[in-house]
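Q: Given only this backbone (85 positions), what sequence would you predict?
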């Protein structure tokens, strides 16, 4: 427990946010890193509430560079906070 307070790298810890898109029938969510995670979250939430199926294509900044899926295949969305050095 004391190590976390005496850690010299503690001040170097940064936070980043990812949008998790849970696709129906998939075992793991898509983890999407974007500049404006809240904006993408709100967009996906609005698409989930809509009765119209829309093809959504996004470019991201993480390991997934481009993603495409149908809005009616979204089961849930979330914003995840991650700490890194």
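A: Predicted residues:
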């Amino acid at each position: 427990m004391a190590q976390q307070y005496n850690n010299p790298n503690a001040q170097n810890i940064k936070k980043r946010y990812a949008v998790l898109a849970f696709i129906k029938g998939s075992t793991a969510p898509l983890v999407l890193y974007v500049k404006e995670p809240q904006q993408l979250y709100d967009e996906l939430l609005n698409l989930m509430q809509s009765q119209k199926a829309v093809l959504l294509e996004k470019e991201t900044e993480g390991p997934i560079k481009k993603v495409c899926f149908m809005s009616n295949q979204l089961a849930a969305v979330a914003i995840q906070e991650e700490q890194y050095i």
